[in-house]
Amino acid sequence: MLRVLCAAACLVLVQGADAGARSGPQGADFETVIASGDPAVYAQAIASDAYSGPQADLLRGALAAMLNRDGEAETRLAALKRDETLAPSLRREASLTLAGVRLRAGDYAASVIAYDAAEAASGEALEPGQRQARDLAAALRDEPAMTREALIPGSVSMRRDRAGLPRARVQVNGRRQDMVIDTGAAFSTVTESTAERLGVRMLDSDISVGSSVEESVPGRLGVANQLDFGGVIFHNVVFIVLPDEALSFAGGAYRIPAILGLPVLARLERLRITPDGRRETLDFELSTGGGPPPNMVMEGLRPVLLARVEASEGRLRLMIDTGARATLLYLSAGEAIPGLLHGVEASPTRLGGAGGVRVDEDAMSLPRLTLLVADQSVTLEDVRMLSHQQSGLHGLLGQDVLRARSGYLIDFTAMRLELLDG
Predict the structure, then answer these.
(1) What is the pLDDT of residues 5-57, one digit of tens each?
(2) What is the DSSP letter of 145?
(3) CA nearest 33: which of 48, 45, 20, 49?
(4) In whole angstroms, what is the distance from residue 71 CA to residue 213 CA?
(5) Where does the UniProt annotation place the signal sequence (predicted)?
């Protein structure tokens, strides 16, 4: 299994969120409601009129951030980071959520201000991933936000590479480049040699990013003046630039020169991926929103599915990761839904990502896991549960689920992931 996660600039919306059985606001204090990280719980609390003033604004702002409504989130959260009527921990949450919203909107300087406000609110230092995100935003503070020209419906052909990852043709500054299509990458990513060939403008900054293998991989930042994907034109596209060896595997037999990450993919709004013989077709179009209730949320720069588990009232928070071949869980999944641990066996697991390869000696294997995605069920066997935790997540949703039916749909406006039949 190859796993690539090329940036740690993923702000966790709610620290310590637990997606066990949902509970409403009755009998729960405000911080418990906030810590649920569940849009349905937030909506129920808002509808109950149990909270008013800054608390209601925090609920509405955090809900807007989850549902990718950045303008509303900015309006509601901006004033809260200095509101002394909120507990310091809640001012910190408001500031962290606002920092993530601003980062994905490309308002980098304002994102730094929000990160610093979060640290000042409670006096607690930022967590390592948050510090990486703050430093990345600081390195970009003088850069304009990425922009997209008119979104005209279109389609792109994708092929599977030898590791099973989807690749498609992209043009950067007029030069063609095959890229892995990866919703799990918080920013698009290229190797140093690829950046030079594509004419990516390098910034005078050294950063560190996280991967599935290393907590900190050294890299740099670059900006592409123009990127064309399927005829849709983007400007000022940020790239993480890594040493060539960081994305080289099996002694150089397999290389990833470039990755197209979430910021570009999310701006295509409504993605539909379907098999086409030995290839796949990615269709995109404007989203009208609406429809069934959301089953996914945005946490900073990562899309998270709220997946139900068969025979359980709990839900798992799984990052939707088109760059992962297989779904995997973190140890926190067993804490959220203890029944998952029945029948698990020790199973050391090899992981590959930016920075190399490592083996999780304490990983376990679940013999069977049935996930419910919208109205579709998918049963997986031999699902690996890694021994480490990742704040706010219970695991990754990979291609084994996404390709279990006749394709899948991701709508970044309606905030829905659906598996397609027929």
Answers:
(1) 333 333 333 333 343 434 444 446 888 898 888 898 999 999 999 999 999 99
(2) P
(3) 45
(4) 35
(5) 1-19
How much is the pLDDT for 278?
Answer: 79
Chain-centroid distance, C-alpha 56: 26
Q: Could you tell me which residues come within 8 angstroms of residue 295 by beta carbon, excluding any fewer than 6 positions away?
A: 305, 306, 307, 373, 374, 415, 416, 417
Four-residue CA torsion sign, 373, 13, 94, 70: negative
Q: How far apart are CA 82 and CA 88, in angstroms?
A: 10
What is the CB neighbour count within 10 angstroms for residue 265?
Answer: 22
Q: What are phi and psi of 96, to 5 degrees?
A: -65, -45
The pLDDT tens digits of the residues spanning 172-230 come to: 999 999 999 999 999 999 999 999 999 999 999 888 876 554 556 889 999 999 999 99
Mapped onto helix, strand or coil, the DSSP state of residue 292 is: coil
Q: Is 110 helix (H, G, I), strand (E, B) or coil?
A: helix
pLDDT in tens, 112-170: 999 999 999 999 999 988 999 999 999 999 999 999 999 999 999 999 999 899 999 99
| Residues written for the chain | 422
Distance CA 260, CA 280 (A): 16
pLDDT bracket for residue 314 (50, 70, 90): confident
How many whole angstroms separate alpha carbon 201 and alpha carbon 398?
32
Residue 187: its H or E element = none
Round to whole Å and give the CA distance between 6 and 301.
12
Distance between CA atoms of 422 and 382, rounded to whole angstroms?
A: 27
- The token duo for 216 is 């900190």
212 Cβ neighbours under 8 A, 6+ residues apart: 3, 4, 5, 351, 352, 353, 354
Could you tell me the domains of the chain? 30-140 (1.25.40), 147-268 (2.40.70.10), 287-420 (2.40.70.10)
Tell me how many helices (H) and strands (E) the chain has: 11, 25
Identity of residue 282: L
Phi, psi of 60 (to 5 degrees): -70, -40
Q: How does DSSP assign 28-54, residue by residue? A: --HHHHHHH--HHHHHHHHHHT---HH
What does the H/E/C string look like for 175-228?
EEEEEEECCCCCCEEEEHHHHHHHCCEEEEEEEEECCCCCCCEEEEEEEEEEEE
